[in-house]
Amino acid sequence: MTVKGVPIELTPVKSSNLVGVGYRSVQPGSDALLIVQFKSGAVYTYRHVPKEVHAALMAAPSKGKYLAAHIVANREYVFEKIATAESVNRFTQEKKA
């Protein structure tokens, strides 16, 4: 997946709500990005998420609960919806053709 021109690989996760999670670590002068793809097809980015929070999400027994309680609820992590189910489905079908 490419997010704002930067290739980021999503790691598949076992979850009833999430498909995959990606992370681009912090570099001086840039934001850390957490990328989450939901089973609905929606894709969100969360900026300013520390690598320790990403690691805890990946280790959590319930990824969806951890995401809601520790990332979505934290207003310091600026989020943006970057894809919808329709756009993800369209991209997937275009790749198959």
Explained architecture:
With 97 residues, the protein is an alpha+beta fold. 32% of the residues lie in helices and 31% in strands. The chain is built from three helices and seven strands; from the N terminus they run E-E-E-E-E-E-H-H-E-H. The protein has a five-stranded antiparallel beta sheet with strand order 3-4-5-6-7. A two-stranded antiparallel ribbon has the order 1-2. Helix 1 runs antiparallel to helix 2 (63-72). The radius of gyration is 13 Å and the shape is globular.
Which tags fit this structure?
single chain; 97 residues; alpha+beta; five-stranded antiparallel β-sheet; two-stranded antiparallel ribbon; 3 helices; 7 strands; 32% helix
What's the quick description here?
This protein is of the alpha+beta class and 97 residues long. It is built from three helices and seven strands.
Most strands sheet:
5 strands, antiparallel
Q: Return residue spans where pLDDT drops below 50 for at least 5 consecutive residues.
A: none
Overall 3D form: globular
How many beta-strand runs?
7
Strand order of the largest sheet: 3-4-5-6-7
Distance between the termini: 18 Å
* Global mean pLDDT: 84
Helix fraction?
25-40%
Structural class: alpha+beta
Please give the count of helices.
3
As a whole number of angstroms, the C-alpha radius of gyration is 13 Å
- Binned strand content: 25-35%
